[in-house]
């Protein structure tokens, strides 16, 4: 396995950003000369970055054809969401079992601005949604869990850009997760977190 020791390397980060934001689309062939020229770099550091992204399953190398942006099939999408369901469910359980009220308050603050609002700004809500799911994992202070989730979350961003379901459908689900965590109900917290991801998975696969 090729290891990319500096994951803050600008070339690596820029190409990853191009994949996540759709500038480089799933299934698209990566023209290295074009990207190297666009970024103002030589092909050697670009190839190193691409190999790192291949390790993250964002790029795939096809013999005698070249390198392509990874295109996710139905089975892979299913598997990614199954992993998210398990990881976020476990994170919710761990936080519910924690006595750290400050962490629980951080989660709660993600959605406080939207409670009782008849017209929710989609962009603001999308940012809050992303922050919530990221915090849910990070606040566990579980490094292996954080690392595993990181890879799955990047893939989810590539598959589904923006909100999959509207705020009027998911806000209540988020609040139920937070309330279960606040009350220390580990079983309920895990159940609500899993069901939240499961609904998005089913919708995405039937889309």
Automatic annotation (TrEMBL):
InterPro entries linked: GntR_C, TF_FadR/GntR_C, Tscrpt_reg_HTH_GntR, WH-like_DNA-bd_sf, WH_DNA-bd_sf
SMART domains: FCD, HTH_GNTR
Domain HTH gntR-type positions: 5-72
Presence of keyword Transcription: yes
Gene3D superfamilies given in the database record: GntR ligand-binding domain-like, Winged helix-like DNA-binding domain superfamily/Winged helix DNA-binding domain
Keywords: DNA-binding, Transcription, Transcription regulation
Entry's Gene Ontology molecular function annotations: DNA binding; DNA-binding transcription factor activity
Protein name: GntR family transcriptional regulator
Species: Allotamlana fucoidanivorans
Organism lineage: Bacteria, Pseudomonadati, Bacteroidota, Flavobacteriia, Flavobacteriales
């Amino acid at each position: 396995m090729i290891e990319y020791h500096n994951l803050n390397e600008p070339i690596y980060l820029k190409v990853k950003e191009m994949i996540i934001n759709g500038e480089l689309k799933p299934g698209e062939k990566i023209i290295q000369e074009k990207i190297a020229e666009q970024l103002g770099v030589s092909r050697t550091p670009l190839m190193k970055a691409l190999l790192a992204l291949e390790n993250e399953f964002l790029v795939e190398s096809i013999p005698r054809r070249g390198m392509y942006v990874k295109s996710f099939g139905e089975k892979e999408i299913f598997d990614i969401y199954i992993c998210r369901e398990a990881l976020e469910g476990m994170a919710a359980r761990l936080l519910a079992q924690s006595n750290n009220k400050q962490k629980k308050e951080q989660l709660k603050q993600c959605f406080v601005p939207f409670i009782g609002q008849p017209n929710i700004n989609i962009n603001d809500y999308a940012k809050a949604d992303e922050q919530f799911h990221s915090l849910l994992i990070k606040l566990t202070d579980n490094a292996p869990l954080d690392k595993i989730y990181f890879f799955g979350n990047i893939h989810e961003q590539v598959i589904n850009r923006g909100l999959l379901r509207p705020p009027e459908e998911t806000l209540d689900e988020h609040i139920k997760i937070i309330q279960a965590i606040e009350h220390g109900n580990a079983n309920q917290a895990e159940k609500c977190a899993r069901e939240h991801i499961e609904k998005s998975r089913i919708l995405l696969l039937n889309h």
